[in-house]
Amino acid sequence: MSDNPILVIGGGPAGLAAAKGIADLGRKAVLVEKEEYLGGTPIKEKYAALTPDFRDAEEAMGEMIKAVTDDGNVEVITNSTVTSVEGSAGNMKVSVQNGGSGKTIDVSSVIVSTGFDHFDPGEETQVYGYYEYDDVITLTDAEKMLKEHKFVKPSSGEAPESVCFIQCVGSRDRQIGNQWCSKVCCGIASKDAMEIKQILPDAKVFVFYIDLRAYGCWEDDLYWKAQEEYKVNYIKGIVTEITKQGDKLIVKGEDTTMGRPMEIPMDVVVLSTGMEPSEGTKEMAGVFNLPLESHGYIGTIGGPLNTVETSVPGVFVAGASTGPADLEDSVSMGGNAAMKACAFAMKN
Amino acid sequence: MEEKKSASFIGLDQRKFTRKPNKKSVDYRHELFELEEQGELEVIRVPEPYVEVTTKFGRTKKIPLQGGWHHKSCGQCGHIPGYPTSIFWLHRQFNLDYFDPKDQTSCTAWNYYASSASNVPAQAAIAVRNFAQAKVDGYFPYIHCGTSYGHYKETREQLLHYPELRKQVRTIMDKLGLPFAFPEEIVHYSEWLHVMRHKIAERKVLDLSNITVTVHPACHYHKLVPEDVIYDDDYFNGQRTPVMTAIADVLGANVADYSTWHDCCGFGFRHILVSREFSRSFAATRKIERMKDEANPDLLLTQDTGCLTTLDKSQFAAKAHKCNVGLPVMSDVQFAALAMGAHPYKVCQLHWHGVDHKPLLEKMGIDADKAWAEFEESLGPIKSGQKQFLTWEDV
Amino acid sequence: MARSIYRDRKYKDVPYEVKLDLFNQVKQDIRWKDFMKGCFECGVCVGACPTARFCDFSPRVITQTMSREDVDTFYELMNDMIWDCSQCFSSTRCPRKNSPGGIVTIMREVAVKNGLESAKDALKTYSRIIYKVMSTGTQVAPDMLQPDFFPDWGPNVKVVAENLDVWRRAIPPDTLHTTELAWDVSDKTKFQLYMIFKLTGNLELIEQVDEGIYDILGETIEELMDEYGVEADEVENILEEN
């Protein structure tokens, strides 16, 4: 049995859940985070409210962060990255780099929870004009505004009369090599659409989608609610092109239910940009020699029945580094990985 | 403005696109050179000097400056002869070597896309026969037509990926006694113009600062096999091809945007010939009227045979329907030649175009009536039988 | 026997086997696996499509039909919709990487090859162009600019037609002094083009859609091939050999 601490890489929802789990099981954890703060994407991208429960993101994540930082069993090292590893199962020497200085930590097992990056809409093969028009924004830009309890047309600062969400930007697309559904965007767009309607009850809000994927209880909590209570317009058919006419954006696509081409003037377009393996995820796969699965995320070995174990003994994964994941997935995997990593340390 | 600033926290100022390689896009040249190594075909190398440009998915493309085997366009040569003439005139102005072959056929793709009365092996063999002739003549193919450019890119993909097709084309080329040749790059004339733009701008003789142009990019240039298409982060923040826009810009004209920039022209291949009401309505209402209403340009620039024909010829009938039309259309290369002082009729051959271009010429500082009188005068020796043809010396 | 899932079938039915044979010909095309993957009805193709804005045409319907392998609806599309496509390939943006325009190209090719009425109808007034491109190697000739053919293109067409000969001879590049073809194509090159048409069975395709054009084209081709010492009849279709 190794007494060395368990290393958790990445302090987002999955990593925080993992670190807290390890500590609760009575073992030491070292949490390495490359930013100067914990909380991962919800904090970095300034999410307003969490999906699906609308809880204030900063407050909810704050509690999670505090539970970790207040726990004496967890050592938090921010502004740092893991650069190399030596040794093997049960006794790994990990180099952690902090700016110019580095140190080596002996660890018993590792949990990689380095998450995802949002897709860059400039790489989209549809013509969405994110880099051409100020009023084309991404879901995360929308979250930043909603966090300030406002929603404006960025080019003028005025309240928009019409807003649309375009789903599957950077997801489900063979052209760009992202052949996965990013799972959360339909729910988040529905949540954001309702928040916009709360601020701007008179605004017309559309969601253009291919298949509306509000799975599980997100169905009526988010999708039906947005459609029935907030009168958000759901249109099956995504958008081909965005151009500009005067001070309005022009959204071109097909309403596939009606079988008719569309061309709608719009004040603000929100691109529901999907997930890609983060740079950190790709780097950690390199450092720990973790094979990637076919989409480029870190591969696990147990299929659907073991979502956190990799082919490298003692190295576990959690959250969106293994594939698109929502918060429920991420924290559940974090706990599962904590349990497995502790068990591994006890056996080796 | 105070409010506007209050939205700036979403980071509008930091939006700067950085091109990354597309995961799905492979550099076809590796496959091409591999086939050459295996003795399956000969690759016609881009001759020096060339300029390197960035393409949509980040690959660097070589655009040769001279040594072109000019793969002409049937529609341009037949109905818009100012296109090829302006291309050649510019080459002559810069003393760049070029070859204007008679051993060239059309790509026949206009017919293929109109009727489908052909098949893949015939289309591929026609492409390779032209390339083989370029190789024999010792020049590098420059493609004048957007459809030929698109079709040849498709043909390249097919030849690279279907061994059976290569075998068929090989059999045909053997029977013709020609090599199986394919160029390293498929280069469109407007790409050559694009890389020449600064040199052309240095020698411009007209002030174009009061000229507003709109641009129509050809679908077969930028949508069909898009990985070959030039993209430049200095224009449209890297989101649209800068070809045509950049030359107009460096020549000092104002380039105006409009809401159907990405739309097709309505050419339709068979439609322009036998279902013309579709082509006319589309061109007039989706393209010309939008441009007129939104940007009120002096001139529309385009880069392809079919687009120029459709956008120019469709305006006459639309006028009768009280559409807001009346916008002169020419190619980027005719505009560039005019800017460098080319004769609007003897070189740019604007009398073949439908829409009245005289007000435009006047605005550009060209005495259109005087130019026309000069052209008419130059026809004298032909009409009197003194000369059979005019030559470059005459213009 | 399968039958159309739609009750309002638009065309005179033919036996299922006939439709299936046509469908299989489409699927056997060398490009099929690259043009047709699957369709999740996103509508990107229709949003980009020029024809869909003016005609009852949908690249999505074509792709979805072929994705379902719905042989009956396929046969309906073969009878009309495929001829409305503009072949601009704006729909190549498809996120599933289908090529709706390319699927149409293949379907049209099969329609021509099998002499379908829709192909004959669609190409009725077009076949003079086929004659031009196949006989001269250039599709568009200056002498096609006749006010009779293009009354809607305005008075300039007439002016061009009247001055055609002189104006052509006033163009500086010496390849462009032609009026019957776009540029001066050498006989050797025309001969090579005819060889390609013969070797790939392209001439026989024309027989399917327009026998008149086929006959005069055949004569033109034979004449020049004769000059080059090749008996046109003896040039075999290499595609059939395989």
Describe the SSE topology.
The complex is a heterotrimer of chains A (348), B (395) and C (242).
Chain A: E1 6-9, H1 13-24, E2 29-32, H2 41-44, H3 57-69, E3 74-77, E4 80-88, E5 91-98, E6 101-107, E7 109-112, E8 116-118, E9 136-138, H4 139-147, E10 162-169, H5 185-199, E11 204-209, H6 218-228, E12 233-236, E13 239-245, E14 248-255, E15 260-266, E16 268-273, E17 275-277, H7 279-287, E18 315-317, H8 327-347
Helix pairs in contact in A: 1-3, 1-8, 4-5, 5-6
Chain B: H1 2-6, H2 28-37, E1 42-44, E2 50-54, E3 60-64, E4 68-71, H3 74-79, H4 82-93, E5 98-99, H5 109-115, H6 120-137, E6 140-143, H7 146-161, H8 163-176, E7 181-183, E8 187-188, H9 189-195, H10 197-202, E9 212-216, H11 219-222, H12 245-250, E10 254-255, H13 271-274, H14 276-295, E11 299-302, H15 305-313, H16 315-320, E12 329-331, H17 332-339, H18 358-363, H19 368-383
Parallel strand pairs in B: 1-7, 4-5, 4-6, 6-8, 9-10, 9-11, 11-12
Antiparallel strand pairs in B: 2-3
Helix pairs in contact in B: 4-17, 6-7, 6-8
Chain C: H1 16-27, H2 32-35, H3 44-48, H4 59-68, H5 71-79, H6 100-113, H7 117-123, H8 127-136, H9 156-169, H10 187-199, H11 202-209, H12 211-227, H13 238-241
Helix pairs in contact in C: 1-5, 1-6, 4-6, 8-12, 11-12
